[in-house]
Amino acid sequence: MPALRPMAPSGIEALIAQRQLRAAFQPIVDLDDGAILGYEGLIRGPAGSPLESPAALFAHANAAGCTTALERAAGAACIEAFARLGCAGKLFLNFSAEALCEITASGRDVLALFDGIAPHRVVIELTEQSAIDDVRDFAHMTAALRAAGAQFALDDYGNANASMSLWVQLQPDVVKIDRFFIHDIASDALKFEAVRAMQHFAQASGARLVAEGIENEADLIVLRDMGIACGQGFFFGRPAEQALRTLGERAREALRAHHIAVFPEATRNAGVGAASGAPAQKMMVHAPALPRRATNNDVLELFNRLPELHAVAVVEGETPVALVNRRAFMDRYALPYHREVFGKKPCLQFANASPVLIEQSMSVEQMATLLASDDQRYLADGFVITDDGRYVGLGTGESLVRAVTEVRVEAARYANPLTFLPGNIPISSHIERLLSRDAGFHACYVDLNQFKPFNDQYGYWQGDEVLKFAAQVLADACDPTRDFLGHVGGDDFLILFQSETWHARAWRAIERFNAGALSFYAHADRQAGGIHGEDRHGNATFFSFVTMAIGCVHIAPGHGAQHGSGSEAIASLAAIAKRRAKQDPSGLVVIDSGNGPALLPTRES
Q1: Model confidence over 542-601: pLDDT tens digits?
Q2: Phi and psi, residue 571, nearest 5°
């Protein structure tokens, strides 16, 4: 006869009365040294029953109207099992705001929560299950918990009811970051930036962060190198009735890993649209406007009164309908008899009836599209700045070009606008991180031979395609969790390899690029083996195909402190290696920073 499946009790009250709740514990780990600091206590129903999972338990309790009773029973079961197992560290217990408030409302002492354990060993986690009606009243509960010796935590921060306002008002001792922000943080720049913002706020408020939902090594190392204090997740251990006492070897090795994380860069969002402030407001010329019924004489009088004004807007009510350019208007009026003939005519006669309108909240990226438009009149006329469609001022074409140029130059320092790879500032920052951690790495400067003649022959558009192809080849050659790829500018790239297989990866990039670059040439040039052109002195020269050269500098582990000038010294050494690689038939040269410029073998034995 098959074994009978255990039956669930007839109700949550019966389950509690029969003491059939089981406690499970998941470790909370110090990401600095791997020590288990404590455990989150979780609850399970009878094994094999429909109420075994916590989701089923609480759904059933919610339907029966006894959720808070289940929370109290779950806490008691966790405390009892925690004490019986003799676990070290702190015990994290989950309670909703409703359950905690009910304790106060019933007149019971908050110490009743800690029957069987010293309060200073408990951290009460406020779950997201219910909102707090009156935060000020609830703050009395958190004060009572702290007075008893316990600590208070916000659970699942960034999700549901766990908001920044709650953080500010309750000032928790611990904040547990919701797993949504932790999963794939190693490859998601926005999640990375969100957690970094939480980290800054935690430092300001004095709270300790716990990253929930760590499930892989890459995410763990990013969090470790960010300086997040603690972590929790399946990578360390699943909830178990027998609490884990020491971390597994895989988790310990990940925490001890010598390579540093490659932080994901929000490069595609670091362009001109990332300019701070309201650029249209900064470019605004505060100028009076004329009503639609105004005459050309009114325009002339205004221009004579305000000699610095480049244009005047014509409005109907508060809505701009036209723009009169000063130079074009005054040139017409300088003609014989124009003032006498046209002075009393409507000013719309000499106006641009389709002026460029820019909302003052518009980003520079949005305004930059004007620079590529067919209608370039705005460069002379300028443009009208509006606030929700209402006229507020004018802008000049010159100021727009200057703003776009300045922001793009600044943005290019962070991300190359062609390949979207990190620019000089992130490159320098990553080198400094490598040196400060004394991590061993290979700095590889990448350059393309014969790229300028190709660019001259085929044009910049085709040249850009070659650069994008090179960026893709290099990206494919890198391990994104260990190797940092940046675009210095033009046809210069820099890879900071931490992969042990860096040598094979570099060779693979050279071979793949050199083969693929041929497809960018015309059939006749491929047949001829290159292109005819002129060298820098104007002499007729035959140029072979574009090829990749990589010069590498080896920085041994623990030798980073020798490079007092930091990233500049590393980049200079790599540039020396690159120049040698461009002269070497193999295209790959390695020098050792500790042994001077002596050449090392370039091919694997």
Answers
A1: 999 999 999 999 998 876 555 445 788 888 889 899 999 999 999 999 998 754 443 444
A2: -65, -40
All structural domains of the chain: 12-257 (3.20.20.450), 274-407 (3.10.580.10), 416-600 (3.30.70.270)
Contact (CB, 8 A) for 5 and 53: no
Q: How many CB atoms lie within 10 A of CB 322?
A: 20
The letter for the amino acid at 539 is: N
List Cα–Cα distances, 288 to 149, 169, 297, 427, in angstroms. Answer: 66, 47, 16, 48
Contacts 24+ apart (CB under 8 A), 17-22: 19/77, 20/45, 20/46, 21/45, 21/73, 21/74, 21/77, 22/46, 22/47, 22/77, 22/81, 22/241
% the chain with pLDDT above 90? 54
Strand-pairing partners, residue 29, are 36, 231
- Give the strand order in the sheet containing 547-555: 484-489, 492-497, 441-449, 547-555, 588-592, 599-600
Q: What is the pTM of this model?
A: 0.71
Residue of 413, 373, 419 lying closest to 397 (CA atoms): 373
Q: How far is CA 434 from CA 77, 256, 416, 444, 484, in A?
A: 47, 15, 22, 14, 11
pLDDT at 597: 42
CA distance 456 to 444: 27
The predicted structure's pLDDT at residue 7: 41
Compute how many other C-beta atoms are within 10 angstroms of the C-beta atom of residue 509.
Answer: 25
Lowest mean pLDDT among 12-26, 30-44, 276-290, 434-448: 276-290
Give the pLDDT band (50/70/90) at residue 373: low
Question: Residue type for 197, please?
Answer: A
CA dist., res. 399 & res. 190, Å (int):
32
